[in-house]
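Re: [ENG-882] Designed sequences occasionally contain unexpected residues at chain ends

Forwarding the minimal case from QA. Structure tokens:
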């Protein structure tokens, strides 16, 4: 039996040793996990103060049944995302990425297995990439060798449960423009770089929609917070190793059109689903929303153009551009300040409906 820990020598190394001892003792016992851990802590850290005993108990439970050093970070509601590369842990808070220590008690590969087990997903050399949603709504992405050359990597993005007010993203004048855009059922494309706040801003814009409207939200991995009363959520499904076929966003968009949406929302457009979405926006489904990755509003339109061209390579470029300018009314671009991490609307552009659009003229924008 390891000697009891006194409160005069409770440095980090001693606490880690106590956690190791508790886990080893519980591994050799049968019974209810929480009770076994509590009993082991009382024996092994008998002289520690109650606060330290509680910390040792939480850490031991996290290692035995949770996600080890990641568990307290995931329990911290101020953390937006947890990243693990090798043994290095990083967290994002308020838009800023900071180091948060190292994995000591386990490996990232073991954590990935523990994360995926409850949701019935697996990762191996034949399928070395997993993108999935956890029961609490968090989004997990994991990669292992051979595609991850430097070793396995894990990302867990927290599901935003609170819809932020639009005032968090914009000054009053810009907020009023956005309200006008939503009230007049404009088709809106929210653009921005990775982690710029596109999903959060989209949720804020949806908060301006008439609460009686029927919203159909389509996502690759469900993460958009939405408290609408009349809400239908559809989520894509990947194929699995047992032969269950995939259900992609393209099929879901086409299905959504038969579910009588007042507003159609595609969380992020990045594949063939763009064709169904653009056609829907141009055939009576006004007031629809989507997002896309882009460095600016014009880049967003050019990205939509290239996606449509990939989905319908035989369409003339001039026809694609006419379709886009008749489908998307407004591009709202959001950016994240590199210094403060604050996410703000940088511009709101109207897509110019110019009859002179041709193959040499990309869709135009007006502020």
């Amino acid at each position: 039996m390891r000697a009891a820990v006194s409160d005069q020598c409770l440095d980090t190394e001693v606490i880690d040793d106590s956690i190791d001892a508790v886990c080893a003792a519980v591994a050799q016992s049968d019974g209810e996990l929480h009770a076994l851990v509590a009993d082991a802590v009382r024996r092994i850290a008998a002289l520690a103060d109650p606060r330290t005993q509680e910390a040792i108990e939480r850490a031991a439970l996290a290692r035995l049944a949770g996600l080890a050093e990641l568990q307290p970070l995931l329990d911290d509601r101020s953390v937006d995302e947890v990243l693990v590369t090798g043994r290095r842990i990083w967290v994002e808070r308020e838009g800023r990425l900071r180091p948060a220590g190292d994995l000591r008690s386990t490996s990232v590969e073991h954590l990935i297995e523990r994360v995926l087990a409850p949701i019935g997903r697996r990762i191996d050399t034949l399928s070395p990439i997993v993108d999935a949603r956890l029961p609490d709504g968090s989004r997990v992405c994991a990669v292992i060798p051979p595609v991850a050359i430097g070793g396995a990597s894990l990302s867990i993005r927290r599901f935003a449960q609170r819809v932020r007010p639009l005032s968090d993203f914009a000054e009053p004048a810009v907020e009023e423009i956005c309200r006008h855009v939503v009230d007049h059922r404009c088709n809106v494309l929210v653009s921005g770089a990775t982690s710029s706040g596109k999903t959060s801003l989209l949720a804020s814009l949806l908060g301006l929609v008439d609460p009686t409207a029927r919203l159909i939200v389509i996502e690759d991995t469900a993460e958009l917070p939405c408290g609408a009363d009349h809400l239908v959520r559809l989520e894509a499904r990947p194929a699995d190793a047992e032969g269950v076929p995939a259900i992609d966003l393209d099929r879901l968009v086409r299905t959504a059109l038969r579910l009588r949406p007042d507003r159609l929302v595609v969380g992020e457009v990045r594949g063939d689903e763009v064709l169904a979405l653009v056609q829907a926006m141009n055939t009576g489904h006004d007031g629809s929303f989507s997002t896309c990755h882009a460095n600016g509003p014009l880049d967003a339109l050019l990205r939509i153009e290239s996606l449509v061209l990939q989905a319908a390579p035989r369409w003339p470029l001039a026809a694609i551009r006419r379709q886009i300018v008749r489908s998307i009314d407004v591009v709202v671009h959001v950016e994240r300040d590199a210094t403060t991490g604050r996410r703000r609307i940088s511009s709101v552009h109207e897509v110019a409906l110019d009859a002179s659009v041709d193959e040499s003229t990309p869709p135009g924008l007006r502020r």
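QA comment: On inspection the terminal residues look reasonable. Residues 1-10 have pLDDT under 50 and may be disordered. Proposing we downgrade this to a documentation issue.
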